Amino acid sequence: MPDMAGVVVRGARMPGSGRPLDVRLADGVVAAVGAEVGVERGDEVVDARGLTVLPGLVDAHVHWSQWAQVRRRVDVGAATSPQEAAATMAAAPGAGLVVGHGFRAGLWSAAPHQDLLERAAPGRPIALVSDDLHAVWLSPAALARFGLDHPTGHLREQEAFAVQTRLSAEPDPAELDGWVAAASVEAAARGLTGIRDFEYDDTPAVWARRAARGPLALRVEAAVWEPWLDETLERGHATGDAVAGLVRVGPFKILADGSLNTRTAACHHPYPDPADGHGALNIDPGDLRELMDHVARHGLHPAVHAIGDRANAVVLDAFEHVGGPGRVEHAQLVAAGDVTRFARPGLVASVQPAHLLDDRDVAERHWPDVTARAFPYADLVAAGARLELGSDAPVAPPDPWTAIAAAVARSGDERPPWHPEQALDVATALRASCGGRLELRAGDPADLVLLGDDPLHADPATLRAMPVLATLVGGRFTHRTDP
Questions:
Q1: 3-state class percentages of the chain: helix first, strand second, coil last, to nearest 5
Q2: DSSP class of 169
Q3: Domain check: are 333 and 378 in the same one?
Q4: Nearest-10 Cα torsion for 225, 228, 234, 238
Q5: Per the structure, how many domains does the chain have?
Q6: Sign of the CA dihedral running 400, 402, 403, 404
Q7: What is the pLDDT of residues 340-366, one digit of tens each?
Q8: Side-chain half-sphere of 449: how many Cα atoms within 13 Å?
Q9: Where does the record place the Amidohydrolase domain (predicted)?
Q10: Which CATH number belongs to the domain containing residue 129 in this structure?
Q11: What angle do CA 379, 131, 307 make, to 5 degrees?
């Protein structure tokens, strides 16, 4: 096929528009958009038959290796007590280390403990990763397997992350890469064309390895973590730099606090259980500023995890000190006086609307009297903040339509919307998933999706089930069904 051969999409419609148009993709970009674009020799012509065309959807926050593995772990997400979770793990088939995922202790009346796992399955090595990824629960045999001595086996924050890194290293890299490739194809079928991967690893190097194995189904921004910072700087990598194929260097990830379900999110108010206090900062505010300033000087944009309102205030203070572009990841609870501070140029509020569906009951219990400031999407938009939507997979599945519907409806079940005053309109939620706008323009990357319904005229149920007929990345089909 000649180098200039491309794809011409005939008769598609932009969201909210009844006017059909053509889109030509060539050399990895949108070459032309108009009422009747020309066809070059070798172009493939696709009759869209009035389907809605949208720029490619991006999941702004994932942990992709863990998402690829989680479907091969025991699901304990439905457990309503640690005893029930332990019984589920004890019944799991297989020998050797058994890994579970999804326990949510925020509403349990008792805490996880290694003794519960031992009573349920004597001598069996069991590891459970919490739904929010901020805790790991180990049996005595699993603690011994990892050379750990812990009084309860319920590890949180840095101790938990260290164990998760070791769990992720259990599969052979080639096997894991196969799982990642399969997960990427599944994501493309929901319209995803890109992810920002915050896996706790030398993520740019890992994705370079994967790109060397063959074409990727997604564009990837691979984040950098502090243990691999020196290596990243030695390579001369800065945020936005090309790594290999569709892979670029992402931001530099910092954890300012913990999570709601693990009760480690740093808040101005105390948690109901005195043992949880106010949560905790994972980094001293002065050290945070110094680290952000250091990486920013080397061209790495800080992406700082902040869930509690105290953590968000500390992170915003640091951005005012450091300046420059960056991201606040999660921004789940924000003090009223801090909302407008998100409007600073270059700052992105990276949010995960599916979490509000999962966390509304936990928030009502552990963030009493302040839930009106939880997941404050409408307030952030009104203040001029730039929002980007994601999933935090595997905390939630990487389905952009679930995130969009959650941001719009503020409910995922039969219950009325939770704080509907913070809901987004569909167009705003879409733009926050599509790089800021809904129209394709010449010169854009050739990433687009063809949809069976116009999302601007869809109710939440239709949004959640949005039919995706085709997905293209760089002008190459990564998902395709007959229109």
A1: 35, 25, 40
A2: T
A3: yes
A4: -20
A5: 3
A6: positive
A7: 999 999 999 999 999 999 999 999 999
A8: 31
A9: 44-478
A10: 3.10.310.70
A11: 30
